[in-house]
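Assess the record.
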Amino acid sequence: MIQRPQYNPRIVMGGGMKKDWVIWGGCVLLFGAGVIWGLMWTKKEFFYVQSIHDLAEIASSIATVAAVFIALTAWKKQLRAQADHDLARRVVVGAERFKKAALNLIIDSQFCCENASIQFADYNLIARIEAGIASRLAIFDEEIAAFEALLVEVRAIWGSELDTLFERVRGVASQSYESNKNFLMFLAESGNPDIPDGLEVEVHVFCDQLPELGLNGGPAEVSRVIADLASSADAYLKRRLRV
């Protein structure tokens, strides 16, 4: 059974008294401000300017304060614009590094697709480039971590638009990464009779998508497709650099 809270008049009265003190304190301060303002108005000479020279000095002081305020405002705007420009430049560089790492992954994926079946695998060739595939996977790990850190900063300052624009190319690169990693696992377990059948299947799933995405050509063609996937994001960054 839910018990209703008990009414405690001491708590209610205590809270009311605290609010009353705040109100009375505000009234006293308001009254004091009125007294000070009234005393200022009684001294009429405070508002009188005895000479043109004094008037010029007052105007000069006001102009100086206004100029300082305007300069400070412009300086703050310039700082914000410079910070935006610096962030955009760092993201452009990070994006290019990421796209280059993604290109290398996809070229490796083409090789993995051609050798993803044991009966057709060229083991002599695989042995020579297996370490290279693993190395490029490690490089991609570093580049994607650095790029994601930049995107976190971008989301905090500019919002999530750029994050969304890069989603397609990041998705393709992620699929390529997983496919290549599964291929290396497949090779490592190829002499094991208990090798998981799913590894070969997962490699072939991305292989089937390469022609659909236009990623089954040479490096120049793959680079063009990656550029197309990231074109909206690149245009966004160019606009940021011009601001």
User: Anything to note?
Assistant: Confidence is low (pLDDT under 50) at residues 1-18. Helices lie at 9-42, 52-114, 123-157, 161-165, 167-188, 197-213, 219-229, 231-242. The longest helix spans residues 52-114. The chain has two domains: 11-48, 84-242.
